[in-house]
Each structure stands twice: as structure tokens, then as C-alpha cells.
Design brief:
Two copies of one chain form a homodimer. With 283 residues, the first copy, chain A, is α+β, with helices and mostly antiparallel strands. Chain A has two domains: 2-72, Winged helix-like DNA-binding domain superfamily/Winged helix DNA-binding domain (Arc Repressor Mutant, subunit A), CATH 1.10.10; 82-282, Vaccinia Virus protein VP39 (Rossmann fold, 3-Layer(aba) Sandwich), CATH 3.40.50.150. Chain A contains 14 helices and eight strands. In chain A, the strands form three sheets. In chain A, strands 1-3-2 form a three-stranded antiparallel sheet. In chain A, strands 6-8-7 form a three-stranded antiparallel sheet, sandwiched between helices. The longest helix of chain A has 24 residues, at 129-152. Chain A is globular, with a radius of gyration of 22 Å. At the A-B interface, helix 1, helix 4, helix 7 and helix 13 of A face helix 1, helix 4, helix 7 and helix 13 of B. Chains A, B: Residues 1-74 form the O-methyltransferase dimerisation domain.
């Protein structure tokens, strides 16, 4: 799936508007026919492509995208996961190669994977403008499919001034404004992230900068069960934070404790049943 | 799963004979407590470990192997998959990092992954005695769980002289002798493989060397559907052969054609419903 995305298989099949043969796809994408045929057949097995035999030729298969590929794997789709997949393919996969070292040492593996000091994980993740841009585009991919659920988990319409801490490329803010038309969202992030967000992701019409004291904070996180017995996706996220950052996933009780210590009196938790959950703290 | 195997988590829990805390496991295996706790919880989510809370302490979890881990993930079990997993972890994973290049170029990725010439894939796989030994132990892991099914797919009792081409570490031969007590099996492989097999895997009592003209040949392969639409495991195997070797997976018809060309008149195919299938050709 990752390789077919990287090579542009799904984009080509969307643009062509008709099923294509393995040879045609290989020629268009500058790939070997032997390798491409095998990749396409594996994508059929994974239900990312559908193949039909030509009536005339008899033996040649023609490939087309399945609906799920058109929605999630083409670059141009509003719900495209292309950017986050490329981030996983080119950064996360390389860190996970050193998972055993990460568990032994209890720290991230940027040094082994990229020769970069592990002391400042966000410095490592944002080691070049290009890498930062890829990460921001990747985060936007995620919020294009997960954003609405976490924002609708609570009725946030009483909050007209909303602050998105670490809001990056602005896709969550965009979902928020769409769901709560009376809200304004202020994105807080590192200065260089904000600069790129303004240049590349959020147009001036969309953006409003505001400051506000007090209010509520919505934590958008993937919650561990209280006994940490699951969900397995969240446990694996926590493994990933070990190899890539200094953070970890937490239980609802752990987040509540953090919020209480920061002076939030009323704390409520909602699980969305999807990857990200919502914790609301009020001052 | 791979990292917990590599660090020896399942072996330690088997040997200890009692559930252990995360701190105890980390200390025994020389790992960080922070990384180990996260790894253990992820293994609980993957159902490779079970955790129970201590009654006295209240909050500390004790971890033990699940049955599947005792059978397949401990080194000492007769059905241990430890060696093949280490092979996947340290060789296959690294080649798959370059899957897009493999599809572009239509050839294996030993050069990018290990700086080794891709022209002789078995030379690359057997680039040192240690690597060859790991590969042979890995193959033996596979036959310890898949061997009996392919050998029982046909009644091979009429064949008392059996030749195992590329028989490596001898685990398939051992299953064959166990299932057909009247058979003798001759392993054919590269001279250095045979030497290591004799020294490390097959004791003199087990081994009989014999030659025989004619007879039958049992191809033990993972068969693609005739339209190559699946099974997805076999398609992924074929992708792996692209990044690691020069071979590919084939359909039953393709194998039949190869056998016919080699003079085998009667060819029969049986799918086992598991990973490997059986094709019998008779002369």
C-alpha cells in the first residue's frame, strides 16, 4: 500500500479515468513491468485495486482503484492519507527498525536512524523545512478523517474563542470552524511551524488570531484503558513515541491528574470509539 | 512481537515459571524500565502476554506468557518461530525498506540494504556462515509448523526413496521420516549448506544418503490463484522474492508447465488451505 502510493499508482488510475494494464502503468510510472505486475496483484489481494480480464485479449488484466483507494490513497482527495503514509514510510519505519534498542535504552532512535541528536525530538522531526512540511501535511491527513469526531464529542458551541495548542497545519482548526461557525480558532505552535502554516496551509481568510484568559481545554488524545490493557492501537502509538519522541500515551485518569494540577476544576472524558478521544477540562 | 522475542521476554517468562513485574523483567534483560513497561503492555494488547494486578501491592502488574507465546515464541519450544522471526527482523525488514526501488528496478535490494551485489541472491543470503546458519534455523522453524501438512497432502508411502531439493536444515526431511517411517530422505543443497546441516542440524542416525532415477517430485510451494487475484499472503511472498531474490510465486498451471517441460507426465495439485501447497509430478 505504501509503495503503490509512493510510486503514484492510485493517482495515475484516478487521472486516467479508465482501467489500465500492468504494462501501461509500469511505463507511465517509469517502473519495471515485472515488479509492477507483482505490486498490482498484491494490491488486488489487499483490496486496494480491482482487476478484470480483458474480453478481447483474454489474458491481460486491467486494474482500477477500489472506492477506498480513491477516497484515501489518491493525493488529490480531501480525505487523502498520502502524506501521513509517506511520513510513516520514510521516517517511522526507519525508527522502528531500532525498536529493540529503544526498549533497551528507553529513548528515541533518531541517532541510529538518521544520525541526528535524540535530545530534541521535535528538532529532529523538524530537521529541515522539507521534513517539517511533510510532517504538517501528514498531520493534516489525519485530521481530515479523525478531526470531526473529536470536535463533536462535546458540544463546544459555548466556546467562541478556541485555542489549538500544537495546531500545526490547521486541518483540525478548519474542521472546528466548519462544525462551529461562530467560533474562532487560534493556532499555537512553534514560530517556524506557524510561519509555514500561514504560507502553505491556512489562507488569510480562514485565520483569526485572538487571546483569551480562562475557558476550557480539549485534549485530543488516544486514551489507554485504565489498566493499560489496551487498546492495542494506543499501546503501539506509545511504542512509537518511545522510538520517536520523549512522550507516551496516557490513561484518562493520568490526563485528569495533569489537568487538575494545572488548575482545571471540572474534567470530563469521552471516548469516540475511534482512534482519538476527547477530554474536556474547564476553568 | 519481534522485539519482545529478540530481547528474550518470552524465554525469561517461561524459565521463571511465575509471573514477573515489568521492573523485574527489565532488570533481568538489561533494558530500561520505561521502554520495557510499554513493550509489555503492547504485548498484552497483541495477546502475546497476559497481565494480572497483584493483590497486595494493588497497582503493580505481573506479566506471564499466553499459550501461543509459550508454543511459538520461546526459543526452546519444538514449534518455536524465534529463528524465522529474527531472520525477518534483521534481513527481510531491511530489504522491504526499499520496496519502491525494487518495483522500479525489478530486482532485489541487497545492494541498498547490505551493500552486497544483488547478482547472486543466495550468495547474498549466505554472505557469512552466521547468516547462513540463521537462515537455515529460520527455515527449520517454518517446517516445524507447516511441514506435516504438505507431506500428508498426498499419500507418499509408495515412495521409499525421497529427495528433498534445497532441503537446508533438514526439518522437512525429519517430518517426512516421522510420517513415513519406511522412507529415506536425501537432502540436496549447496555443498556449504549440506556441511552445516550435517554439523548443526541433522545427526548421523537420522541421515541416509541415496540416489535414485525416476520417481516423483513433490513441489512444496505457496500457490497463487490462476488469475493471480490471491491469496494475499502468496502475493506478498512474491513481493518479498522481488526485494530479496530473483524468484517469484507461481500458479498451479505455471508449475505444471515447468514439470511437463521437465518430462513429468502425471501432475496433480492439492491445496492444503494453509500457507504451503503441494504439487506432485510423476515420471
Amino acid at each position: 500500500m505504501f509503495t503503490a502510493c509512493e510510486l503514484g499508482v492510485f493517482d495515475l488510475l484516478l487521472e486516467s479515468g479508465k482501467p489500465l494494464s500492468s504494462d501501461a502503468i509500469a511505463a507511465c510510472l517509469g517502473a519495471s513491468t515485472m515488479g509492477m505486475e507483482r505490486l498490482l496483484d498484491a494490491c488486488v489481494g489487499l483490496k486496494l485495486l480491482a482487476a478484470e480480464m480483458t474480453l478481447e485479449g483474454g489474458k491481460e488484466a486491467l486494474y482500477r482503484n477500489t472506492e477506498i483507494s480513491n477516497i484515501y490513497l489518491t493525493k488529490s482527495s480531501p480525505k487523502s492519507q498520502y502524506h501521513i503514509m509517506m511520513y510513516y514510510s520514510n521516517t517511522v519505519y526507519l525508527c522502528w527498525q531500532y525498536l529493540a534498542d529503544a526498549v533497551r535504552e528507553g529513548r528515541n532512535q533518531y541517532e541510529r536512524a538518521f544520525g541526528i541528536s535524540p535530545k530534541d525530538p521535535f528538532g529532529a522531526m523538524y530537521r529541515s523545512d522539507e521534513e517539517m512540511l511533510k510532517f504538517m501535511a501528514g498531520q493534516n491527513s489525519v485530521w481530515s478523517i479523525c478531526g470531526r469526531d473529536v470536535l463533536a464529542a462535546f458540544d463546544l458551541s459555548p466556546f467562541t474563542q478556541i485555542y489549538d495548542l500544537g495546531g500545526g497545519g490547521g486541518a483540525l482548526a478548519r474542521e472546528c470552524v466548519s462544525l462551529y461557525p461562530n467560533s474562532t480558532v487560534t493556532i499555537y505552535d512553534l514560530p517556524k511551524v506557524v510561519q509555514v502554516a500561514k504560507e502553505q496551509f491556512v489562507s488569510p481568510e480562514e485565520r483569526q488570531i485572538a487571546f483569551h484568559e480562562g475557558g476550557g481545554v480539549l485534549l485530543v488524545e488516544s486514551l489507554l484503558n485504565e489498566d493499560k490493557s489496551g487498546p492495542v492501537e494506543t499501546q503501539l502509538y506509545s511504542m512509537n513515541m518511545l522510538v520517536q519522541t520523549e512522550g507516551k500515551e496516557r490513561t484518562a485518569a493520568e490526563y485528569s491528574k495533569l489537568l487538575e494540577a494545572a488548575g482545571f476544576g471540572v474534567i470530563r472524558v469521552r471516548r469516540t470509539g475511534k482512534l482519538y478521544d476527547a477530554v474536556l477540562g474547564r476553568k
